[in-house]
Amino acid sequence: MKILVLNCGSSSIKYKLIDMPKNDTLASGGVEKIGLKDSFLKYKTPSGEKKQIDCEIPEHTAGIELILKVLQSKEDGAIKSLSEIEAVGHRVVHGRE
C-alpha cells in the first residue's frame, strides 16, 4: 500500500511517499517559500538523487499539483499513476491554550 504523507505549513509543504507495510520511502521532498518569487521544490528521486525545481508557486494548490506531477514524471517519478496512492495522511498541529 502506497501512502502519501503531507505536512503543510504557512509557506511550505513537505511530503513522503511510503510503501507499507515495508515502510520504504519511495520519494520525498518539499516545496518552500510558497507565495514568493523564489519558491522551489526540492526532492529525492527513487534512485536517491537530489534535485530542485525553481519556479513561482503562488499558493499551496500549485505546490500540491507540482508534487503530484513530479511523483508521476517519467524521469523522476515513483509511481505511474495517482491511482497507486491508496491513502493520504496529513499532519495536523492543534494549538494549546
SSE layout and pairings?
Layout: E1 2-8, E2 13-19, E3 24-32, E4 40-44, E5 50-54, H1 60-72, E6 85-90
Parallel strand pairs: 1-6
Antiparallel strand pairs: 1-2, 2-3, 3-4, 4-5
Highest CATH level, the class: Alpha Beta
Structural class by secondary-structure content: mainly beta
* Widest β-sheet, arrangement of strands: 5-4-3-2-1-6
Return the CATH topology: Nucleotidyltransferase, domain 5
The CATH H-level superfamily is ATPase, nucleotide binding domain
Radius of gyration: 14 Å
Total number of distinct structural domains: 1
Element order: H for helix, E for strand: EEEEEHE
Largest sheet: 6 strands, mixed
Question: What is the overall number of helices?
Answer: 1
Gap between N and C termini: 38 Å
- Mean pLDDT across every amino acid position: 95
Beta strand %: 35-45%
Q: Unreliable segments (pLDDT under 50, ≥5 consecutive)? A: none
3D architecture notes:
The protein has a six-stranded mixed beta sheet, covered by helices on one side. It is mainly beta. It is built from one helix and six strands. Helices cover 13% and strands 40% of the residues. It has a single domain (2-90), classed as ATPase, nucleotide binding domain (Nucleotidyltransferase, domain 5, 2-Layer Sandwich).
